[in-house]
User: Fold this.
Amino acid sequence: DAGITQSPRHKVTETGTPVTLRCHQTENHRYMYWYRQDPGHGLRLIHYSYGVKDTDKGEVSDGYSVSRSKTEDFLLTLESATSSQTSVYFCAIRRGTGLPDIQYFGAGTRLSVL
Amino acid sequence: DAKTTQPPSMDCAEGRAANLPCNHSTISGNEYVYWYRQIHSQGPQYIIHGLKNNETNEMASLIITEDRKSSTLILPHATLRDTAVYYCIVRVNFGNEKLTFGTGTRLTIIP
Assistant:
């Protein structure tokens, strides 16, 4: 257990509505990540953060924004949800900044956009 | 990151050792081998990693060939709870934040 809590665990929303997913960690790690997982695509990195207010894009960042105003929370926002954003979203943290570079994952949020 | 090749599925009898192969023939000198697994509907779970030497922890052993072009993850006494998809990942440790999960090996432990 890497002290990661994702909320909500399940959400159903309608196309065009804003959605915010929260990732909370209790161990004060600098690096945090958001991935999505879809059948046939594996896990794909959306955004990541390397410190408070320091974020960068991953490979599938279009339609998503993130914020990190404090170390423990990393928020993922879908400004206007679309059906293509129906997915399982995983948050991850990296323990430490040196070697080894290992990511630990939360339990996931299952999002359905109708 | 180097490309990896894993068999799509394997079965193993409960209590026996499960040996999961991974081919990474294009691995470069600064790339590590990581293994993760994902039990149905759960988040991926880190298992073990290595660079050149064989490694062992409380979950598994990792055997890396001398030329580093392939590796084997060994679960010494498989239980039903080890049924999962196992991913072999090869990547440099820094300058690349993305973990690239391929299709993995679906390991089924048979009672």
User: Anything to note?
Assistant: Chain A is about 0% helix and 60% strand.
